[in-house]
Amino acid sequence: MSGLATLSIDGRIARLTLNRPEKRNALSLELLEAVHACVDQLAGRTDVSVCVLAGAGGTFCSGMDLKAVLDSPGAPLRLLSSIAELTLKLHWLPQVAVARVRGAAIGGGCGLACVCDIAVTHPDAKLGFPEVDLGVCPAVVAPWLVRSVGAGRARRILLQGGTMSGLQAHTVGMVAHCVPSEELDGFVDELAGRLALAGPQALRVTKKLLGEIDGERLTKLVRDGAALSAQVLEGPEARSMLSKKLGERGS
Amino acid sequence: MIRIERYNDPRFGQVCAIVLDRPERRNALTPAALLDLKRCALELGAEEACRAVLVRGEGPMFCSGFDLSLCKDDPGVLTSLLSGLSEVIRTLRQLGKPVVIAAHGGALAGGCALLGGADLVITHGDAKLGYPVVTLGISPAVSGPFLAKSVGIAAARSMLLDPRLISGADAGRLGLAHVVDTAEDVLPRAQIEAVKLAEKPGHAMRATKAWLNEVDGSNDAASAGAGLAASLSLVGGAEERLLLGEMLARSSKRST
């Protein structure tokens, strides 16, 4: 494993950590492959009930690695498909997925938080989907956001772009808990401990049922969403806005 | 009673408004007004220079719903009103640019249903919103498929079955309104929000709105059609003739 994602298992609790802190855990193809490998490993573990997803360093995940996207033709679709498949795997993961969102969860990173069963953050964290501001369409994450906050609120969030505070994310229902920053780790540990005490089979069956209520249509939408996001990303509007943005950053 | 408003003010450059302009009747909707609303929406939808559409009402409230006084002599009018309303909501939803509604004062019955076509609804804390039409033997089912998307099934049940009105503050909590302003004049805030949306990259906005329509079932013509059919099934029936007739008799007595 590349070390871009780490998995440690202690009793019934697994910890999956995005480990590219120098790039604020931006989702590159390599990092995504490492996360896929961890999730695949967990899928067969009936002895594990909880998976805590977190980011190394001060940021949960800053979203898609835009530099990697512009690198080569076909890169957008490969990257977006990998994000799409990862969200689907997390959705069907037998363990309860808990996202510990410290610092920021942006774009695809916020999508990962939304697909987790329970997301926890702190009031001054930054969450959201600024895709449209960059000429990009957040199509992969749209089905997950609609599921988590309802279609009316999702419309506002995705069309207005930008980001919101952890407190606002909690008010709209995007995260289940919002606790003071210094209590975040303790709160998540306590939550994971509580879940680990529950009947593992009861948790598994309940999560599976909730997934089935969402329905098979979700799978198709997420996959079609990846193709649409990639198509918009390859278009001239997004290309010119992203190059400008990266240029600003580089200078 | 419906007109397009183009701003010459550079601050509102790429926003155009559709104005409900019949303040003396609290912007009550007629079949002709609904046709005009749809025509204006399509006109602005096709206009390249228009990047966001604002819908607002003149006078004391955004919209009091259907002009039921027209139904007195011709029950067929209600059929046109219901079909026209369904068409307008669907047209707003399908526009390739964001639609913002400034709902000040009140948005009642058909006026509240219009909010189902908007991407962003601005209201204020003590505005009155709701569907008080079951008391007239009219079913608000036509709004059901749209309302359920914005507030969820449970809240939609309570709003469509219980004829009470809710406050703008409650509409914000339910997700029917997205911004709850403190001032009753919500127009300045609505204009600011519309300008922000108009300034975003057009291609990404169009793609994202179209995709949200696909994801949340807004493109499902069958469910919109079923809502309309349910409302239409009661038109001209004994219950509606009795309850609506009583209301119309009371209001004509008042006006004489």
Features:
heterodimer, A: 251 residues, alpha/beta, 6-stranded mixed β-sheet, 53% helix, globular, B: 256 residues, 3-stranded mixed β-sheet, 9 strands, 47% helix
Précis, in short:
The complex is a heterodimer of chains A (251) and B (256). By secondary structure, chain A is an alpha/beta fold.
Distance between the termini of chain B: 25 Å
Structural class assignment of chain A: alpha/beta
Helix content of chain A: 40-55%
Stretches of chain B where pLDDT is under 50 for at least 5 consecutive residues are: none
Assembly status? heterodimer
Helix content of chain B: 40-55%
Along the chain, the helix and strand elements of chain A come as EEHEHHEEHEEHHEHEHHHH
Strand content of chain A: 15-25%
Largest protein-protein interface: A-B, 31 and 29 residues
Shape of chain A: globular
**What is the number of strand segments of chain A?**
9
- Widest beta sheet: strand line-up of chain A: 1-2-3-4-6-9
Q: How would a textbook summarize the main sheet of chain A?
A: 6 strands, mixed
Number of helices of chain B: 10
The average pLDDT of chain A is 94
The secondary-structure element order of chain B is EEHEHEEHEEHHEHEHHHH
Report on the structure:
The complex is a heterodimer of chains A (251) and B (256). By secondary structure, chain A is α/β, with parallel strands linked by helices. Chain A is built from 11 helices and 9 strands. In chain A, the strands form 2 sheets. In chain A, strands 1-2-3-4-6-9 form a 6-stranded mixed β-sheet, sandwiched between helices. In chain A, strand 1 and strand 2 form a beta hairpin. In chain A, helix 3 (75-92) packs parallel to helix 4 (108-115), helix 3 (75-92) packs antiparallel against helix 10 (217-234) and helix 5 crosses helix 6. By secondary structure, chain B is of the alpha/beta class. Chain B contains 10 helices and 9 strands. Chain B has a 6-stranded mixed β-sheet with strand order 1-2-3-4-6-9, sandwiched between helices. Chain B has a 3-stranded mixed β-sheet with strand order 5-7-8. The radius of gyration of chain B is 17 Å and the shape is globular. Chain B starts with a strand and ends with a helix. The model of chain B has no long low-confidence stretch (mean pLDDT 94). The A-B interface holds A 131-139, 142-143, 146, 150-156, 158-161, 221, 225, 228, 232, 235, 237-238, 241 and B 98, 119-120, 149-152, 175-176, 178, 193, 196-197, 200-205, 207-209, 211-212, 214-218.
